[in-house]
Specification:
- The structure is a single chain.
- This protein is an alpha/beta fold.
- It has one domain: Rossmann fold (3-Layer(aba) Sandwich), CATH 3.40.50.360.
- The protein has eight helices and six strands; from the N terminus they run βαβααβαβααββαα.
- Strands 1, 2, 3, 4, 5 and 6 form a six-stranded parallel sheet that branches.
- β3, α4 and β4 form a beta-alpha-beta unit.
- α1 packs parallel to α7.
- The longest helix is centred in the C-terminal third of the chain and has 16 residues.
- It is globular and about 45 Å long.
Length: about 200
């Protein structure tokens, strides 16, 4: 059984539909450590050592956030900047996360067809997520395909939240087909590459 650390960041959780539903569903998945960064660090005062110890105690890092201006919310970026430091996540002696897995769970307000050369976002969503992928690689981590909800302001969030809970359980039970999950340019929606059995 893999140990899952689910880090969540949304500065406007009270007005969220998709991310609030995903957060609620994740907290009901047994043996998954779920952390709300804004609730835990309301003044952006991150205990770096405690966060690093928490990371080392887990096998899989799942980072959940809405896409804001083609990146993550500010506190998630602050967490990355401070916690994934030289000597811990990269550089000389910085191999403490090597062999672990990183997966993003993101939402966009734009529809799926907006992403790509024919859409108004001009680029595939994976292009905007490249900094996270490279962060994982620099830290020696495996980067799994992001779990994505497009058009997050519309539709029923419950199905997507159930899919996210299924994904977390699949990661925990090591039931995710990692060959398919780490394919270049792959994205997960509500259909997940779970192994049979």
């Amino acid at each position: 059984m893999a140990r899952i650390l689910h880090i969540f960041a949304h500065p406007g959780l009270a007005s969220s539909r998709i991310n609030a539903a995903m957060w609620g569903a994740a907290r009901r998945v047994r043996d998954v450590t779920s952390v709300d960064l804004y609730a835990e660090n309301p003044r952006y005062e991150i205990d770096v050592k405690a966060q690093q110890d928490r990371l080392e105690a887990h096998d899989v890092l799942v980072m959940q956030f809405p896409i804001f201006w083609y990146s993550c919310p500010a506190l998630m970026k602050e967490w990355i900047d401070l916690v994934l430091s030289r000597g811990f996540a990269y550089g000389v002696g910085g191999d403490r996360l090597a062999g672990r897995t990183m997966l993003l769970a993101v939402s966009t307000s734009a529809p799926a067809e907006a992403f790509g050369p024919e859409g108004y976002q001009n680029f595939p969503l994976r292009t905007f997520l490249t900094p996270f992928e490279q962060t994982a690689r620099l830290a020696g981590m495996r980067f799994a395909a992001p779990y994505v909800r497009h058009d997050a302001l519309h539709g029923d969030p419950a199905d997507h939240a159930r899919g996210f809970a299924t994904l977390l359980a699949g990661l925990r039970d090591e039931n995710l087909d990692m060959d398919r999950a780490t394919a270049a340019d792959a994205l997960f929606h509500d259909t997940l590459p779970l192994r049979k059995g």
